[in-house]
Amino acid sequence: MNKVLEFGRKAMFYVRVLSGYEERRIRSYRLQLQKRLQHAEERKAAVRKIPEQIILTEVRRMVEDMQAMNRKLEETEAAINEYFKPLDKEAEIIMKTQLDGEEKSMKEMMKAMQTQALLEKAEADRIATLKNTEADGIETVKIAEANQHIEEKPSASTKQAELRS
Questions:
Q1: Mean pLDDT of residues grouped by 10 in the chain (165 residues)?
Q2: H-helix or E-strand spanning residue 163
Q3: Is 0.70 topped by the overall pTM?
């Protein structure tokens, strides 16, 4: 009986193979296995991508935080500039006033130095002319003395003329 059952099974198998039923069943089983493998690979890739996605979302969040902070810094800087704008204007006015005062004092100092230089030059010229006149005076005095000396000594011709008279 076992032999008959085994023969029957083999016969059914041959009928299924010849009819293509077994081939279709094998193909569907193979397709089912391929689908399972594909879903498993997709899940595996998704699991691998999760850390990347987490990292990317963290990076995006950090970039957004940094941009928000930059905006806040710019707003704060603008507010600080607006707050100090009147002080800057006052400081600029004070600096201009100081510079104008320094410029005026420098001009006055330059005028004083020029007048001092002119006075010193005039004094030097006066001293030089005095020295020249003193030298000329000494020379004229010497010449006058020499002339007097000459006039005091009678010349030989004047002596003879006096004797004849």
A1: 88 80 84 95 85 87 96 94 89 92 94 94 88 74 69 56 54
A2: helix 156-164
A3: no
